[in-house]
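Thread: Newbie trying to understand structure tokens

Hi all, I'm a second-year student working on a class project, and my supervisor (Dr. K.) asked me to get a predicted structure for one chain before our next meeting. I've only ever worked with sequences, so writing a 3D structure as a token string is new to me. If someone could post the tokens and maybe explain what I'm looking at, I'd be very grateful. Here's the chain:
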Amino acid sequence: MSDEFELDTDDLTRRMEGAISALRTEFASLRTGRASGSMLEPIMVDAYGSPTPINQVGTINVPEPRMVTINVWDKGLVNKVEKAIRESGLGINPQLNGTIIMLPIPELNEERRRELTKVAGSYAESARVSVRNLRRDGMDKIKKAKADSSLSEDDQKFWESEVQELTDRFIKAVDDLLETKQAEIMQV
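---
Reply by user tm_fold:
Sure, no problem. This is what the structure looks like when written as tokens:
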């Protein structure tokens, strides 16, 4: 190995793990027909003059498989939370009961399930693109070191195979997550 050049594979790994983490977050927001508090995470409520995440204005619970409840702490925000949910595009019709907002989760029909699998596929493709971009960054650093003559051809091949191995591992992780999520969505 050349003493002058060492690719920071830990940094590449950390950045690729970030792409996987972002994918998991996006997948969590996809509605699968089962109630989940995480499906409300992207919703922002206009609270006290600024956009606030919904989980900072109330307690989110899942008392049964097809119901999510939000116990809004400030009575004055109940209507704003309800409005934010209606406008979120989740397709859920909130029901008010004092400071508690109940969200019955309707059964997904076949067409909607297929749409959601396509959305999941596009999220996965974005994650793959991120991983490939990180691969390109790593390969560019290797090529630059080779051009600067601080890297032998054997070392170049070694580092390129290391980066490719890392990329293949993370692309497989993306594919596995997608397969699991699509099976979850299609499950009736």
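A couple of things are worth pointing out once you decode it. The domain at 34-104 is CATH 3.30.1360.40 (Gyrase A; domain 2). The chain has two domains: 9-27+109-186, 34-104. Feel free to ask follow-ups in this thread.
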